[in-house]
């Protein structure tokens, strides 16, 4: 792990890729996070690593985690990131009172949308936005988008499209239905995160794609040709029309305690039809943010 | 791939890139790329004859050199890669961007008959990982390209660090390279491409006749 440059302090996480260590930069004495990548035999450098590094080298924004260095360890790679305190999920679990504060929610949501708008303006989709991938600097009260392993440049045409991206509960309906997708998938995920910050509970908790779709439709209504042209061409929809419906719920009853402007924004972010869903850029201009504290 | 089935036009190139179907014939970009690279190699060989210093002094870039010059045209090699990996046409445009960047980053490096196959295989594999959502493993790409998995992994690793992981291709860059390829088709390039295709036509026909099962290991030992 670039042992000459960075001294490990403690292990702070792990995943399919390898492990993450909190380290000290021996030159600058700065604290950094080092992600050690383990390669699968015969697989070479994972595409997620190629994308994460190459995209983060292009992105420079206060609400996107900074990649400081890439270390060549002969047959493995270490990614050196700026170190932040914790992710949004842990923040909500550890500091529920602060996390529930309407001003904190507003400030954090504004910053998340700034990061997403920046990505989209550079024609980059994140595709895996969820509380665990949003890192927080507690001192400065800054949120940063992290984990660009599933991110993708969406201006270049490509032939193999996977809809198996993102975590189920934050996955947009067009992904679940196998539609072609673009920037609106990130806005849907941010909408789910917004609702979760307000209620401290994931908005959708199904464990299968069809269960999540049923939850989507029971909360937001069954889409039809009027609300989402072309949606009935997808097989899953016709099956769902025939299946016993979930008890109809109202978004207002589920996400309570949100000011009217906030609820209006949430509804626009959770629009089933991606073509009618609000963009991240337009969301930043919404009246909900009219009195938001200046962000860095 | 009969010559008659290929309309050599900028429009054809563009439609391949933006409305490519997986069951389509060989995309035109492959012939255009082969033509461009062959021309670059011819120019480099001419320079090499005249200047002793034209050989790469950068030890790192020598990783792409083969012990022996492979007996396979660029066109045939690219077609083989396409046939077995089915990477979409835009992968080849992005690979071309990478080759161009690589040559700019390493001015002493010259594409020649000894390094072109490995460079193409590496850039196409990396471009595929960058562009496409579903990819074969390095071990499969290695078999397609006539390399060992260890060689393929090493080439990829060296290439990524030599490029400094500067692999992002934005829309305007992609478009400008598409335009460059289109110009290659329209401004006299068509003749060169047609010659390349004619020269390979027999080779392709015989290869198709004698082609073994999809997963058979490559026999071109680079």
Helix proportion of chain A: 25-40%
Distance between the termini of chain B: 25 Å
Measured by DSSP, the beta-strand proportion of chain A falls in 15-25%
Please mark out the parts of chain B with pLDDT under 50 across 5 or more consecutive residues, or reply none.
1-6, 191-205, 207-222
DSSP summary, beta strand count of chain A: 10
Number of domains of chain B: 1
Instruction: Point out poorly predicted stretches of chain A.
Output: none
State the CATH architecture of chain B: Orthogonal Bundle
Which whole number gives the mean pLDDT of chain B? 77
**Chain pair with largest interface:** A-B, 30 and 38 residues
The CATH homology group name of the largest domain in chain A = Transferase(Phosphotransferase) domain 1
Helix content of chain B: 55-70%
Shape of chain A: globular
Largest sheet of chain A: 5 strands, antiparallel
Keywords (chain A): ATP-binding, Cell cycle, Cell division, Kinase, Mitosis, Nucleotide-binding, Phosphoprotein, Serine/threonine-protein kinase, Transferase
Family (chain A): Belongs to the protein kinase superfamily. CMGC Ser/Thr protein kinase family. CDC2/CDKX subfamily.
InterPro entries (chain A): CDK, Kinase-like_dom_sf, Prot_kinase_dom, Protein_kinase_ATP_BS, Ser/Thr_kinase_AS
Protein name (chain A): cyclin-dependent kinase
Question: Care to describe what's here?
Answer:
- The complex is a heterodimer of chains A (296) and B (222).
- Chain A is an alpha+beta fold and 296 residues long.
- Chain A has helices at residues 47-56, 88-94, 96-100, 102-121, 173-176, 184-199, 209-220, 235-242, 251-254, 260-269, 280-284, and strands spanning 6-15, 18-25, 31-37, 67-72, 77-82, 86-87, 124-125, 134-137, 142-145, 152-153.
- In chain A, strands 1-2-3-5-4 form a five-stranded antiparallel sheet, covered by helices on one side.
- In chain A, strand 8 and strand 9 form a beta hairpin.
- The longest helix of chain A has 20 residues, at 102-121.
- Chain A is globular and about 60 Å long.
- Chain B is mostly helical and 222 residues long.
- Chain B has a single domain, classed as Orthogonal Bundle (Cyclin A, domain 1).
- Helix content of chain B is 62%, strand content 0%.
- The two termini of chain B are 25 Å apart.
- Chain A binds chain B through residues 39-40, 42-45, 47, 50-51, 53-55, 57-58, 70, 72, 75, 122-123, 152-153, 155-162, 165, and chain B through 17-18, 20, 22, 86-88, 90-91, 94, 125-126, 129-135, 137-139, 149, 152-153, 156-157, 160-161, 164-171, 174.
- Chain A: One of its GO terms (cellular component) is cyclin-dependent protein kinase holoenzyme complex.
- Chain A: ATP binds at residue 35.
- Chain A: One of its GO terms (biological process) is regulation of gene expression.
- Chain A: Its EC number is 2.7.11.22.
């Amino acid at each position: 792990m670039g042992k000459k440059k960075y001294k490990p302090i403690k292990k702070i996480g792990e995943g399919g890729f390898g492990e993450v260590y909190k380290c000290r930069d021996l030159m600058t004495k700065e604290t950094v996070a080092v992600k050690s990548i383990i390669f699968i035999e015969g697989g070479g450098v994972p595409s997620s690593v190629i994308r994460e590094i190459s995209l983060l080298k292009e992105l420079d924004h206060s609400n996107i985690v900074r990649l400081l260095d890439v270390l060549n360890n002969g047959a493995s790679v270490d990614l050196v990131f700026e170190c932040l305190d914790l992710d949004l999920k842990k923040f909500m679990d550890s500091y529920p009172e602060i996390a529930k504060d309407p001003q904190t929610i507003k400030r954090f949501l504004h910053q998340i949308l700034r990061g997403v708008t920046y990505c989209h303006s550079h024609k980059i989709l994140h595709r895996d936005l969820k509380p665990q991938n949003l890192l927080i600097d507690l001192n400065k009260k800054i949120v940063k988008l992290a984990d660009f392993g599933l991110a993708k440049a969406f201006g270049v045409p490509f032939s193999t499209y996977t809809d198996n991206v993102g975590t189920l509960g934050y996955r947009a309906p067009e992904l679940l239905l196998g539609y072609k997708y673009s920037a609106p998938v990130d806005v849907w995920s941010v909408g789910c995160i917004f609702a979760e910050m307000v209620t401290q509970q994931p908005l959708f908790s199904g464990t299968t794609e069809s269960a999540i779709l049923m939850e989507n439709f029971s909360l937001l209504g069954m889409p039809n040709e009027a609300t989402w042209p072309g949606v009935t061409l997808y097989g899953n929809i016709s099956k769902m029309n025939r299946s016993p419906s979930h008890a109809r719920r109202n978004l207002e009853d589920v996400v309570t305690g949100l000011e009217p402007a906030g609820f209006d924004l949430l509804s626009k972010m959770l629009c089933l039809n991606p073509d009618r869903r609000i963009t991240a850029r337009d969301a930043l201009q919404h009246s909900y943010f009219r009195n938001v504290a200046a962000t860095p | 791939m009969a010559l008659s089935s290929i309309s050599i036009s900028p429009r054809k190139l563009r439609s391949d890139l933006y409305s490519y179907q997986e069951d389509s014939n060989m995309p035109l970009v492959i012939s255009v790329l082969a033509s461009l690279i062959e021309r670059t190699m011819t120019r480099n060989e001419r320079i090499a004859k005249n200047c002793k210093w034209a050989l790469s002094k950068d030890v790192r870039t020598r990783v792409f050199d083969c012990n022996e010059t492979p007996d396979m045209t660029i066109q045939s090699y690219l077609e083989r890669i396409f046939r077995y990996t089915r990477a979409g046409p835009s992968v080849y445009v992005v690979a071309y961007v990478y080759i161009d960047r690589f040559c700019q980053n390493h001015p002493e490096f010259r594409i020649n008959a000894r390094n072109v196959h490995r460079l193409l295989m590496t850039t196409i594999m990396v471009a595929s990982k960058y562009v496409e959502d579903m990819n074969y493993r390095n071990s499969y790409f290695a078999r397609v390209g006539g390399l060992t998995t260890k060689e393929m992994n090493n080439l990829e690793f060296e290439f990524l660090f030599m490029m400094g992981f500067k692999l992002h291709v934005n829309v305007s860059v992609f478009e400008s390279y598409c335009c460059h390829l289109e110009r290659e088709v329209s401004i006299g390039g068509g003749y060169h491409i047609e010659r390349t295709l004619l020269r390979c036509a027999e080779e392709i026909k015989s290869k198709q006749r004698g082609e073994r099962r999809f997963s058979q290991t490559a026999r071109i030992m680079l």
